[in-house]
Known about the structure:
There is one protein chain. The protein contains four helices and three strands, in the order αβββααα. It is of the alpha+beta class. A three-stranded antiparallel beta sheet has the order 1-2-3, with helices on one face. Helix 2 packs across helix 4 (119-135). The longest helix is centred in the C-terminal third of the chain and has 17 residues, at 119-135. It is globular.
Amino acid sequence: MSDGLYHERIVALAKGKAGAGRLAAPTATARRDNPLCGDRVTVELRLAPDGRIEEMAHQVRGCALCQASAAALTARMVGQPGVGIRALRAEIDGVLDGTAPGEGDFAAFAPVKDHKSRRDCVTLPFEAVRAAVEDAGF
């Protein structure tokens, strides 16, 4: 394990498991898998009629980076329009490319820029949310 990659904030996000679990009545769901490392993310959303995310839950079977990413994303997505996932994906891509610092907990993923094979671990929850939102018609 790389100490630089799994620093204190990543471990805290992963252990905190913010948003982990299932929703009682989701209106959108999607699952994404990373066949290279075996990570799997399932997201459940409760969308308002206007597409705003009222609740989000995730189940992650994966590494600490994937768990931390799902937790950080949940904190940013709830209350936002579902289409906002596109801007958040662009923001995390900038962090992973080293071209943007990222806001809040997204900045914790900056060390991943030096580990290209681990970027998909971070972006997998973003892809699951994007798929759920688009499948719901937003």
